[in-house]
Write a structure and sequence with these properties.
Elements lengths: L11 E14 L2 H5 L8 E9 L19 E7 L8 E4 L4 E7 L4 E8 L8 E6 L16 H7 L2 E12 L3 H9 L4
Antiparallel strand pairs: 1-2, 1-8, 2-5, 3-4, 3-6, 6-7
Length: 177
């Protein structure tokens, strides 16, 4: 047996990720160009590295995570065409338009050399800003558009316990920033 397929016992190594979404309110002109006139927001749901690039508006994504993530499957609401979206290369994200919030199942499949089972996460798609006490829960669109993008992100750490030696070598060759 090759030493590469031997597990390194007693060792844990982790990689920080974020998952979540960013949403913006569409202008009246943008809504008129869509096939669904009732869609009010454009949103992107993603799995990214936790580190953000300098001088970037994008939350996370500074590090390449494809050396340990093979595929991310986003299970959208059944009203979307092809609601199960497989993303096999970075960026691991899906962008759509819509009008309502719903729960998205996120299944992360790791590279085969990891020897790890897939991981499932759940994220509530957030379109509307968090309301302060006494304000309406969902502001009118003309107010929401002035507030700018809505961000809803979760930090997590993917922990690999007793990794295979070859996979450990890959992870240590690509440290997070």
């Amino acid at each position: 047996m090759s030493n590469d397929r031997v597990r390194v016992r007693g060792l844990s190594i982790f990689r920080p990720i974020i998952y979540g979404n960013t949403a913006i309110v569409l202008t009246e002109k943008e809504r008129q160009t869509l096939p669904h006139a009732d869609h009010t927001h454009k949103w992107t749901v993603a799995v990214r590295s936790a580190a953000s690039a300098a001088n970037s508006d994008i939350v996370g994504g500074a590090d390449d995570i494809s050396h340990f993530i093979k595929r991310v499957t986003f299970k959208l609401h059944d009203t979307y065409p092809n609601p199960s979206r497989n993303i096999d290369k970075p960026p691991f994200e899906v962008s759509e338009t819509g009008w309502g919030e719903f729960e998205i199942q996120i299944r992360i499949t790791f590279v085969p050399e990891s020897g790890e089972k897939a991981m499932t996460l759940y994220h509530h798609l957030k379109l509307h800003p968090w309301a302060a006490a006494g304000e309406p829960e969902i502001p009118p669109l003309d107010v929401a558009i002035k507030l700018g993008p809505v961000h809803s992100w979760q930090y997590d750490e993917v922990v690999f316990n007793d990794p295979f030696q070859n996979f450990l070598n890959t992870l240590t060759a690509h440290p997070p920033t």
